[in-house]
Specification:
InterPro entries: F-box_dom (IPR001810), She-1-like (IPR042317). Pfam families: F-box (PF00646). This is F-box domain-containing protein. This protein is an alpha/beta fold. It folds into three domains: about 60 residues, no CATH class; about 130 residues, no CATH class; about 120 residues, Protein Transport Mog1p, Chain A (3-Layer(aba) Sandwich), CATH 3.40.1000. Helices cover about 30% and strands about 25% of the residues. The chain contains twelve helices and twelve strands. The protein has a twelve-stranded mixed beta sheet with strand order 3-2-1-4-5-6-7-8-12-11-10-9, with helices on both faces. α6 links the parallel β4 and β5. The radius of gyration is 24 Å and the shape is elongated. It starts with a helix and ends in a 41-residue tail after the last helix.
Length: about 350
Amino acid sequence: MASDLENLIGTIEKLSIKPVYDTNWCDMPAEIKLECIGKMDLNERLSLRCTAQAEKSLVDSQKIEFNYGRFCGHDEGFFGFVLYSDNKCNLWKHLYNKSETIGLMKYIKNVGVFENLYISFGNLFADNEQFATDDGLFTAKNIEFRKCDINNIISVLNKLKEGVESIKMNGKMSDDLSQILAISHIQNVPYWHIEYYNKTDSLRMVAQMWIETNSKIGSIFQVSVKRNGSFEEFLEHFDDRIVYFQVDKSKDERRVRIRTENADIHILLERGLDDSVAIDFADEYFRLMVIPAEMKECEYEDDCQEWICKIDTEIYEYDSDNSVDDYDYEDYDNYERDWYDSDNDGWNPDNY
């Protein structure tokens, strides 16, 4: 970092016959400061915000890209942040105060551009005025929720910029799925899934939402359920729309295809079954897809292993090429480790 600044200052001095400023930070023009800030990591930016109050707006105007962000905690008052840039740990921080946590989250939310964002904050954001009234939005390509109640999920999704490509959540939420389905991100995201959902209505409700919103071809929803009956409930609800129905006991295959209000698109439901996931397996795996109406049966995908592994990465001990686990991220769930908590990390809640 220091060498980058020295090289930049040296270049500027060579280009200027009569410098109108010294090499002190306060004498540099805003455009040069922005170049410098763009080369700083998160901790250096936090330090600059605290030591140079006049520069806060400049620091806050510069985005920073993260491969991975993990925000975890408990309602009892333990909150942690892990951020990776260029697959290296950029920040490892824990806090014990909800207000301070929201303050740091506010800054990270406004400047961070995330490839993958993982949130497990219980009920931190729901009904939190400081979070709700902030105009800043998360920028994330892929977002995953764990151990969040439904109000918390809704609060974060409402603070998410357009452009999200995948949304993942587990079934430890309120049973009222309709609140989730009303969110525009859920209605438009190319891929989303619920892991270990505890009711039988998800397939029916998602397909109905797609029909009502005229969803795009290629939209995918996956779910793993602990209770039998999801497939049967779907069949009963869409009985008058069925154009294709297959139950092949010899191959343990189950598919059903329904028409929508749009003559150009159909919705295909598949249950994932193979040698590893048998008909009597404890969990059931389903995939809903919006497909072209002219799609032929021979074009169906027979191998379900790859799509099942998107929702359950361990069932085949399968490592997806697109999994964030490809990075060597430390196990944040191990709260016994020594936390990064440098006295010079630049974090001061009074400055947010």
